[in-house]
Amino acid sequence: MNNVLTKELCLSNIQNLTEKMLLDLLEDEKYSVIITDEQHLKEEKEVCWQRRKATLQRVVHKTTISIRHKREKISARLEIGTVNVEERVFSQCDLYISYTKKNIEQVEKFLGEVLKKSIFVLVEPNIWERASQLAGYYQPLISLRYQRDDIKTALDTHLFWQIFLINQGWVDFLCKPLERITLRQLRVKLRRLRSCLAFFKPVLEQPQASLWQTELRRQGEELSLLRELDVALMAIEKFSANTTQEELAQEYLAKILSQARAIEAKRVKQKMQLATLTFTFARLIMWLSDEPLTASCERYGLESFFRRRIREWSKNIISLTQRYPDFSDVEKMHKIRIKVKKFRYVMMSFPEINHNTNTMLRRLKKLQDMLGFLHDEYINKELAQRIMQADGSKTSLKQTVFCGWESAKTAEALAIVPDLWEDFCEDLELWRDTI
């Protein structure tokens, strides 16, 4: 049955091309386009919008098309129109591409050609659910595709919307690579999706799942130096110079770091092409839509899987005390930080397990913030060393600024981290017993 099940990708054209322009774009020497049906519709429906119900109205022109190449045929649809909800109006300029397990390879080839010609981004095919996602208040458990006690629908519901956000996050970053906030948000979205994929690891086919984890990690690593430079620049901005020498050193460092950031942003923008990224995320969605689950997952119900998996993760988190007992070791503390961050992303992403967690999550956030602060300080010092080695002039001035960075706070943080860890683990054990 899965062989004939038809699914859809939806690509929104950022340039808001007209229908004729899109049709012209789709047709070339390789592909011919035949219009098979047209409809002009006015629709409205109640949707969840910013924590309340609202009426979404849509005026849309739907054009069903058949895309042909030799003996191959791909079904597609254009939807051009406007959507109005709560006095907010946004345009719809979408290309829907239908695919089955049998023609995924043909669809990928066609998609690769289309993405070379105009700027597209993946979006939620269901316009009603897309509205909730745009409002920033998407509720997976009331999604139309979600089914209680079905791991496959839970996988799709929890991961698809994150993929759409990351694809849009790359659009935002590549448009404004010098903005710190777009970079930070994109990195958070990438880490969250990686964490959620890791949570489902026991029921996902290998090595495909690991390869997708590697791809998401690669994207995050491309952005890591930019983030390090941003952290250093923010630290310099907070530093209060007490002397003219320190002020000059502060300005000198800010100039060096700003120049380095601009160069790195240009490198990332040139390397990370949006067409390639969108194509990659489309392939990820098609893989998730196909049969990514192992045969062993049939013995799990959704509820039992979530309960068993989070108990395993909780146990592993608690055991970190034995594996990395020395909190003064920066490398070991960084490993704890990564695992704690991954755990928090999972807890915040899955409402199925996020029950009676307020106290635990507050302590987890405080611990995560403190570990993050210490990690940033370590990165700043490493960066300072590289700068001083590269440029011998004004070394003493630079040393003054870097050594002054939050030194008292660093010592204080190192002293209280063990207590924060102990408090969190106590709450985690208590919560784990209630699952």
TrEMBL record:
Q: Which PROSITE patterns match?
A: CHAD
List, alphabetically, the Pfam families matched.
CHAD
Q: Superkingdom of this entry's organism?
A: Bacteria
Recorded hits in InterPro entries, A to Z, give: CHAD_dom, CHAD_dom_sf
Q: What are the CHAD domain coordinates in residue numbering? A: 148-426
Q: Which Gene3D superfamilies match?
A: CHAD domain (1.40.20.10)
Q: What is this protein called?
A: CHAD domain-containing protein
From what organism does this protein derive? Candidatus Avacidaminococcus intestinavium
